[in-house]
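I hope you will forgive my troubling you with a question about protein structure. Here, with my thanks, is the record as I have it:
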Amino acid sequence: MRTGPGPAPAAGRVLAILGPTASGKSSLAIDVAEARSAAGDPTEIVAIDAFTVYRGMDVGTAKPDAAARARVAHHLIDVLDPAEALTVVRFRDLARTAIADVHARGATPLLVGGSGLYWRAVVDDLAFPPTDPAVRRSVEQRYGDDRSAAHAELERADPAAAARIDARNMRRVVRALEVIELTGRRFSDWDDAWQRYESVYPDLEAALLDPPTDELRAAIAARARSMVADGLLGEVARLRAAPCSRTAAASIGVAEAEAVLDGRADEADLADAVAVRTLRYARRQRAWFRADPRCVVTGPGELLSRWGGA
């Protein structure tokens, strides 16, 4: 896994519309891009999302449909097969290349997404420790399900990391131990850049859509019902009929649909299960973006008025 800075960002304006799932980012972004293009500033959308990159995962990801993509050019949609794993570093490189291509055409890239991790990876100069599946498996086998033992080892090797990582988060604990084993450095040593918000794009402006919780909860519930009605079960059935990477399988709706397909859950409860998981994810999304001082909470009307005039 390459951990360097990736493609060098070039000077040029970069806009971003960020926010939790179901906050209205995608439709607003299309309106903004169209208005800007009509005003003489061609604008193209770069999706900052871990799952819309996958072909065949349309319903579960609420991916912009063909009509929306015909209205405005979209990038980083349908670029990988579900069998392909997607690391944060690979996504960063893909996104920065897309941004550079948009700039090279004399257009403005409009980043749109809800993944705080991928957002930071694309716009900031972050260090990513290496990974090795064999070493990770070795650590996993060493501790099995013994979270206490794994966290105790992390506390011995890297007290700072142990203090920040919940002992119940076995995946994160294993990752920290993997990095220590691979590099001989403490996992916490890699965190310094994450505490800064210094973009590699000097002319970056980010708007955060952050609707009231009640509105967001209702929108998430409506989206979950639509996903089920639009064929989530069929999509997941097709998805698991072929090899599927761990990254693709982590998409919200996949595990919930599989539980129904396997007879472990009732189809009538599928929309509620998807909504519950989505709301939990939305809380984490809000935490990422609210912590970033560059993300300015902006209403859709205000943003369209401000950016739509190019």
Summary: The first helix runs from residue 25 to 38. Strands lie at 14-18, 43-48, 74-75, 108-113, 204-208, 295-297. The two ends are 39 Å apart (CA to CA).
